[in-house]
User: Fold NUDIX hydrolase from Oleiphilus messinensis.
Amino acid sequence: MKFCSLCATPVVQKIPEGDSRLRYVCPGCGEIHYQNPNIVAGTIPVYENKILLCKRAIEPRKGFWTLPAGFMENQETTTEAAVRETWEEALARVKLGTLYTLFNIPQIDQVHLFFLATIKDGQYGVGEESLETRLFSESEIPWDEISFPTVKKTLQYFIEDRSNQEFPLRVEDIVRDRKT
Amino acid sequence: MKFCSLCATPVVQKIPEGDSRLRYVCPGCGEIHYQNPNIVAGTIPVYENKILLCKRAIEPRKGFWTLPAGFMENQETTTEAAVRETWEEALARVKLGTLYTLFNIPQIDQVHLFFLATIKDGQYGVGEESLETRLFSESEIPWDEISFPTVKKTLQYFIEDRSNQEFPLRVEDIVRDRKT
Ligand SMILES: [Zn+2]
Ligand SMILES: [Zn+2]
Assistant:
């Protein structure tokens, strides 16, 4: 951020009164421009014991397999975001179950949420952000070609928990080096 | 948003190629300025069966009682945010339990998360954003002076669930009229 989005004055970094963190502050209009983490929401879409994965058509990790997921938008709920992303990436309509995994990824300012889901009618397709989509049985999952750590961990937990049909919420941090 | 925060050119609202939503786009440098929901994280701090509430010293809802909670910051986890807010507002150090409530509030682009928590040493104080803090037994909770619906619902669920000592995750939408 270099300029105030309200008045175009060059912003400065300072700690506002009563605050304890450096913020972008506008010396022109006084606006404090807060920056906060984003939520990525997705699903584990299941049909007849198989899991639907999408081969990414876009960077990052183009060509790798992912669970359908993406940035939550303003004016929607986390569950709406998860359902929407599953439709957009895999043209699958899902019935959502419970929230299953929550990953904190502080070094990239993201929180990832995955919900249990079943594909309503067994139908799916290839959305604009996917090269290919496919139902995988457990033994077919391409573990070496999974896009992101949060997707891999969600799949691992799911397969582990499916054997006893209990899916407790998992809250976990993915921590690498943080910016300082 | 009126100006690009990178180059100060006046932004326009348009649907970028491959997208389906109106975004603020910079005709100067091409940047798409996405806007996404924010996370508010907090705790239900308990000590010897009593719940710690904070009387808000700041707007909105100044003078009303709240659970300690606030906006999650970049470079932290949801759990770190919850612990930090409890320290800042109530000078209480807590041991976190599980995630207990998740509220979607699409009309204000927020997701609220409350974690179970116990106050480590029974010590607490009055943080800068609080006028007063106090441990409340169940019968003392000032139901008519609670700050926000998500705080009230979290307290109600907690008291209900405490009787059988099971605290399943609650995911709920708080929906009023949405912007269109
Ligand atoms: Zn300004
Ligand atoms: Zn620009």
Notes: Chain A has a mean pLDDT of 96. The longest strand of chain A covers residues 94-105. Residues A 4, 6-7, 9, 26, 28-29, 31 surround zinc ion (ligand 1) (CB under 6 Å).
